[in-house]
Design goal:
The protein is built from 27 helices and 21 strands. The strands form four sheets. Strands 11-12-10-13-14-9-15 form a seven-stranded parallel β-sheet, sandwiched between helices. Strands 16-21-20-17-19-18 form a six-stranded parallel β-sheet, with helices on both faces. A hairpin with a 2-residue loop joins strand 5 and strand 6. Helix 8 packs across helix 9, helix 9 packs across helix 26 and helix 9 packs across helix 27. The protein is globular. About 40% of the residues are buried.
């Protein structure tokens, strides 16, 4: 980074600080700003307009105004208050006039000292603040002011029309102090080295980086802000896409064993057993995957599919093709419940093809083993042995698969389920188990808008399964406002009874288990106003199951399922439910992914407002998996006008996961999405908004691919290399912090 000495200069140095040592310390500790460059990239969150100059006679209420006036009179009062019981409270009242009218200003507490010294009768100044009413008189509380020395009209005009940057600040450092610090370092912006290639910048009509930095911190007009943001968005999108393009380029250089299925092997036998034909979507996506598997570079593909679109089947066919070609396939699931379920459904789908080496096994067959942390020692030893000898062609497991002890005979394909729960590092750890890098297929049932896919999973090619298999039933969803209309909730339980009487089963989902110890640390926490509004703790599985069994669902068989149960007990509960012995399963979100019970037709989600949009969509996908229509009831006590309630209405109104994921993203900041997916790291995006800037991201991706293809080492673009190093350093630091 020796190219930018001025920007690399630390804000805090032993000998001379760019800023005062105290300010520099707060910036480092609370805002993560260490160098001049960091500070220049700390952009304003918004801009205040000091407002056009207003006459005192026609001041509007509740608006920010700027007035030029003369101090007529200033008085300091003392008073007693809760904070200053012994009459030590201070209030400064200043009356100002501009000839057209009068206005009162007030300052309180420690804020009185400076104005008391400066705002003497006869002083002329500009005042900016928000107009409010007190005792039926207009006033400005704690206005900002600038004394006018000499009578220059020009000062008045420039000060009043100015756009004042408001920075993301902390309690320890107000926005205007950050603004002052920025004015100190702004001259260094001239030395900022531009990461965008000259041709790209000119072709897109973007301003230079030094100009963008000046305009974002010291705009004269709103057009300046637009120019600066447009340019800085490109920087973020482009540098990130170059990092991803280089990762794709490096991966494409890696050797891999091409895996082509045998003409009459395991895959052909499996397809022959299927009682139905694949949907067009499944055929198209399978072809994309098989084409990738047949190349001598590792496949890196993201398979997005709606809940129930048959992703598991597509992944299984890819695994069978790999086994046909002499390799092994591993499937990584986020939880034990899910790993067990995948194992069970794969074995069921394969029938005797999964009985390799056993009597009764088909001619083309292989062994399918399960590997999880809670397995007994003997079973685990056998599974490890089957993997190292190559006896087992397919292994399904949790992150127990990543441990050092696990060795493969010849790992050819890694399938990662529910990617958003695994960081890039875990993907890489499993991939390193192959003699040569294995092919990688990442699956997610959480639909990801195209831009997020390009940003978060930008190192993967994307396939989308968006049609549901024939025979899947529509799911009707309704919001049940339990507080406004309690009889709706009674009706919900009647509906569950009706479903059970019709020979079906139901889920009831709750946000929490209910046997949590009351953690004294947690209860001592200060509650936010939102928590206060939701005084009641979220409903719990154990309490709800108990109330239902004794009350509205009396006489039905009700069981509970949650993450803290012993794996064998969980398994037994799931088996009874799958077999139809249990009518109603009261569970936490452990059922969110992968549970497949076609006979379950109804789901009641309690405190639905405590779940995210994507999570509700996932949960809902557990019903209507057979030929009978599904019903999903979202129970909430939130008032009709609340954002939480609008979110539920959105979920009830559409079954399109991609539409919902956009709604979800617009409601949360995309920082959360990027953050989670990039393994819990704070998002490095400052001005780029993943949903709104779809075009910028798509164009940046194309430009980045072209730049990397022409010059993978970026030798001709030192500025871009510098920016990239900075981005990757930040990622590496976060990666190490996660450790």
């Amino acid at each position: 980074m020796d190219l930018v000495p001025a920007l690399d200069e630390p804000l805090k140095q032993p000998l001379k600080s760019v800023l005062g040592p105290a300010t520099a310390k707060v910036m480092a500790e609370h805002l993560g700003l260490h160098s001049v460059g960091d500070l220049l990239h700390h952009y304003p969150r918004r801009y205040e307009e000091r407002g056009q100059l207003t006459h005192l006679a026609d001041l509007p209420m509740d608006e920010h105004v700027t007035v030029v006036a003369m101090v007529a009179d200033a008085r300091l009062h003392t008073f007693a208050s809760a904070k200053a019981p012994r009459g030590k409270g201070q209030r400064l009242e200043v009356t100002i006039t501009d000839g057209s009218g009068r206005l009162q200003l007030v300052f309180f507490g420690n804020g009185v000292h400076k104005p008391h010294k400066e705002l003497l009768p006869g002083t002329r100044a500009m005042f900016a603040g928000k107009v409010s009413v007190f005792n039926r008189r207009l006033q400005l509380a704690h206005p900002a002011y600038e004394l006018l020395r000499g009578d220059s009209e020009e000062t008045v005009e420039t000060w009043a029309g100015a756009l004042i940057p408001i920075y993301p600040a902390t309690a320890k450092l107000e926005s205007w102090k950050i603004g002052k610090a920025l004015q100190t370092v702004l001259p260094a912006a001239q030395e900022a080295i531009d990461p965008l290639p000259e041709g790209l910048r000119e072709g897109r009509g973007l301003v230079s980086l030094p100009e963008a930095l000046l305009k974002i911190h010291r705009p004269h007009t709103k057009a300046d802000i637009e120019d600066a943001r447009a340019r800085l968005k490109w920087d973020e999108a482009f540098v990130l896409q170059v990092a991803l393009a280089r990762r794709r380029h490096a991966d494409a250089q890696l050797p891999a064993v091409a895996r082509r299925p045998k003409p009459d092997g395991l895959l052909t036998a499996f397809d022959g057993r299927l009682p139905f034909t694949l949907t067009e979507g499944q055929q198209k996506v399978s072809k994309e995957i098989f084409d990738d598997l047949a190349t001598e570079h590792p496949m890196h593909r993201l398979l997005q599919g709606e809940v129930g679109s048959g992703k598991t089947l597509v992944a299984l066919r890819a695994m069978l093709a790999t086994v046909d070609a002499g390799g092994q396939a591993a499937m990584l699931a986020p939880t034990e419940v899910l790993a067990q379920q995948h194992h069970r459904s794969v074995v069921e789908m394969m029938g005797e093809l999964a009985e390799g080496g056993m009597l009764g096994g088909a001619e083309h067959s292989t062994k399918v083993v399960l590997l999880t942390g809670s397995m007994g020692a003997a079973a685990r030893r056998q599974a490890l042995l089957d993997l190292v000898t190559g006896e087992a062609g397919i292994v399904i497991g949790t992150h127990a698969l990543i441990e050092d002890k696990v060795q493969f005979h010849d790992l050819g394909l890694v399938v990662v389920d529910e990617q958003h729960r695994f960081g890039v590092e875990q993907r890489d750890a499993l991939r390193s188990k192959g003699k040569q890098p294995p092919h990688l297929l990442v699956m997610t049932a959480t639909p990801i808008p195209r831009t997020v896919a390009m940003t978060v999973f930008g190192d993967l090619e994307t396939s989308v399964l968006d049609q549901l298999p024939a025979g899947r039933s529509p799911i009707a969803s309704h919001v049940v406002p339990a507080a406004d209309k309690p009889h709706f909730l009674s009706r919900a339980w009647e509906r569950v009874r009706e479903e059970v009487e019709g020979g079906h089963q139901a889920y009831v989902v709750c946000p929490r288990i209910g046997d949590e110890e009351d953690d004294p640390k947690k209860s001592g926490k200060k509650k936010s106003p939102e928590d206060e509004a939701e005084k009641r703790p979220p409903l719990a599985v154990l309490d709800v199951a108990d109330q239902l069994a004794k009350g509205p669902l009396q006489g039905l068989s009700v069981e509970v399922l949650h993450g803290r149960m012993h794996p064998d007990d969980k398994d037994a509960v799931m088996r009874r439910f799958a077999a139809g012995d249990t009518d109603v399963l009261v569970a936490t979100t452990v059922i969110e992914v992968g549970v497949n019970v076609p006979n379950a037709t109804a789901m009641v989600i309690m405190d639905a407002d405590r779940f995210g949009v994507s999570q509700l969509h996932q949960l809902r996908g557990r019903v209507g998996r057979g030929s009978a229509p599904g019903l999903c009831l979202l129970v909430t006590e939130m008032p009709e006008a609340s954002a939480a309630r609008q979110r539920l209405t959105a979920v009830a109104s559409t079954l399109d996961g991609f539409e919902l994921s956009r709604i979800d993203l617009e409601q949360r900041r995309e920082g959360d999405v990027l953050g989670q997916a990039q393994s819990g790291a704070r998002t490095s995006l400052r001005v780029l908004a993943v949903i709104e800037d779809e075009e910028v991201i798509a164009e940046a991706r194309e430009e980045a691919a072209a730049v990397v293809a022409a010059d993978p080492e970026l030798t001709g673009l030192p500025g871009l290399r510098t920016a990239l190093d900075a981005l990757l350093d930040e990622e590496r630091e976060q990666y190490l912090e996660k450790g």
